[in-house]
Amino acid sequence: MAKYIIDTNTVIEYFKHRHGVSERMSQVSRDDLCISEVTIAELLYGAMHSKSVDRHLREVRELQRDIMVLPISDTLDEYADIRHALTSNGITVEDFDILIGAAARHYGLIAVTDNIKHFCHMPGVQTENWVNRTI
């Protein structure tokens, strides 16, 4: 059975109940889903800058209780390797995306993202896109 790490942009679509992400996530056991500490940091930042701070902070805290949060400290070697590979090929990708990709590679997970254009260049990182923009 496949296991997944959910990227921040996919979590946002999940929170907004858009593009079929909630339905797709409900088809996967919670034991097979996880997120990175990086995603938590990005979501907290977004919540703090929203018009509904309390509601969005609650959503993030509920997600932290429901889905395993993986530490990034164990993935730093993969981060360095991926970033080196990208920059050696003249490819620029945001550090947070590389950290999430590094976690996917380190833990043997599939990165679920709507940002395939960044993740597809990361060596050893498998991706899926659960955002269906036709819905």
Give a short summary of the structure.
This protein has 135 residues and is an alpha/beta fold.
Could you characterize the architecture of this molecule?
- The chain is α/β, with parallel strands linked by helices and 135 residues long.
- It has a single domain, classed as Rossmann fold, CATH 3.40.50.
- Helices cover 52% and strands 12% of the residues.
- It has 7 helices and 5 strands.
- The chain has a 5-stranded parallel beta sheet, with helices on both faces.
- α7 links the parallel β4 and β5.
- α3 packs antiparallel against α4 and α5 packs across α6.
What's the structural blueprint in terms of helices and strands?
Layout: E1 4-6, H1 8-15, H2 21-26, E2 33-36, H3 37-48, H4 53-66, E3 68-70, H5 76-88, H6 95-107, E4 110-112, H7 116-119, E5 126-128
Helix pairs in contact: 3-4, 5-6
Give me the strand/helix succession.
EHHEHHEHHEHE
Query: Approximately how much helix is present in the residues?
Result: 40-55%
Number of strands: 5
Under the CATH scheme, which architecture would be assigned?
Answer: 3-Layer(aba) Sandwich
Name of the CATH class: Alpha Beta
Number of helices: 7
User: If you consult CATH, what is the topology?
Assistant: Rossmann fold
Question: Quick check: average pLDDT?
Answer: 95
Strand order of the largest sheet: 3-2-1-4-5
Apparent shape: globular
CATH superfamily: 5'-nuclease
Key features?
135 residues; Rossmann fold; alpha/beta; 7 helices; globular; 12% strand
